Amino acid sequence: MRRNRFTDKESLLFLIIGLALFVFPFIYEDRSMLILFTQIFIFAIFAMSYDILLGFTGIVSFGHAMFFGIGAYCVSVMLKHYEPTMLLVTGAIILGVLFSLIISFVVGLMTLRLKSHYYAMLTLALAGLFLVAAEKWRTLTYGNDGFTFRVPEFFHSRLHFYLVCLVLMIIVYFGLKRFIQSPLGRILLAIKDNEQRAESLGYQVLHYKIIASIVAGGIASLSGSLYALSLRFVNTSVFTMDITLDALLMTIIGGVGTLIGPVLGAAIIELAHHWLTGLAKVHWIFERWLILFGIVYILAVMFFPNGIVGSVRKLVAKKGKKEDVSTSENIVKEG
Amino acid sequence: MELFINLTINGLATGMLIFLLAAGLTLIFGLMSVLNFAHGGLFAWGAYAGVWLYLLTNSFIAGIIGAIFMGIILGFITEKWIIQPVYGNHVQQILITLGFMIVLSEFLKVIWGPNQIAVTPPAYLTGSWEIGNILIIKYRAFIIVVGFLMYALIYYMLKHTKIGLIVRAGVINKEMVQSLGINIKRIFLYVFMAGAAMAALSGMLIAPYAGVIHGNMGMEYAILAFIVVVIGGMGNITGSILAATLVGLIGSFMAYYVPELSLAVNMLIMAVVLLVRPQGLFALKG
Which residues span the membrane (chain B) (predicted)? Predict the structure, then answer.
């Protein structure tokens, strides 16, 4: 149903950009750029995982920061208490992912029966519980102050970390692409388009939704781990609503229901954040750069429900065949 | 015993405060089936506009009127520009009202600055009465009274007036009401404006109670309101007042006996309610 021609072209484009990004730090040596790009890769992974829920299954979660935070704390706590080696980092990331898989399974089992509003509320509340737990369990988390930790020798070089994040982003991209192009991914899209119809076709909608949320949760945990590693510091802010909001903004602006969209969205938002806060010295209004995104976001939801990538695709598709790219049209209706 | 009564009164006052916050939200959700995530933004704007006027004129009443006025204006804008384009689509409603919430709370900081503003109750509401060992803070008593009045007003409007009848009918069958020659769109706009005004008013009333207002207060309090609306059953005004009282009382007792849990207890209640009875603890059949 989706024009494979375009998606393959997109993959090729993605691969080329990825390769260019591999070469980039060797040509242009700038530490702050390197860190900024690393940040983009990390949030791209996070936003892609969010899009599995929002764009491919049609569920709005307000608790995605929960998994991000689990990943971040898993790595941080391990590195704080044990000698930082690569093996430990890998183990900690895997542990975080496993932990997230279990949590997202349990949470999904509990929450995914609920309708859109209630689901959003409940995920918000559950993420809130994690935030409170992190605030209160001071012996482990040091509360809101957070703590710093040492990273393995290998990651002392920002370049190494940049490359690792880049590779992981590309792996996640192609992995998720494979996932949504699989029969299972097709069922998710069917659920998103019309839940009742999918149900009446005999699919156990709940099962597939849980699978989607498990996949999303695990990958979100990976990005959280990387985030903590990049800062070499963690505090309870990783559990806040702001993190979920970031993912939401990136996904919607970049293009919901596409994998390249969240990556693009992550890049746009991180870059704009970087530059606009830099401009704050010029004029104080740039301190409040989020307003701009809020407005763009509202306009996007209203007029460009497919985001940048979706809209471009639509344009391209119009040239070829007149076919409706239904992406973000009404999904879950109550009743 | 005194402790028990004091805690109960505190809990009641907090509960009423939360009810004020939740009343507008549950009205909007119950009648229009719109979960307004921008509610906290309306609330914070009401608080800021009201407090600004209050500090300017030194009249608490002026502050309240200012807050209500602000709520009505913002309600109009929100309904017309933000909600109307996405009626009937819940996912888009969630997304768009959340976006509007961001804009509202950031814009607030642009106008009034990101710093906290201290607020005190007016002279005639400061201080407390002492009956035996029981201490009743005047402002809390005031909040309790206002909460009950608000409840009575909404209840009466919905159940015993013609406009309430139209609104309730419009919820069940929009087309039917429309075909009777009633402009249901306009009615919904009014309902939304009323809900927004309530949010703004509660913001203004909470300000002296909390002592300070700050730019992020919207989301903070909105979560409480959501919790109450969910526990009470969305759109159920009686459920909301009961749930708010419940949350207020539990919060008050928890804060005294198990302070570690007090932050999480609301969320826990909501989570349990959603799991066991997603239609709300006090929801009527259907």
Answer: none
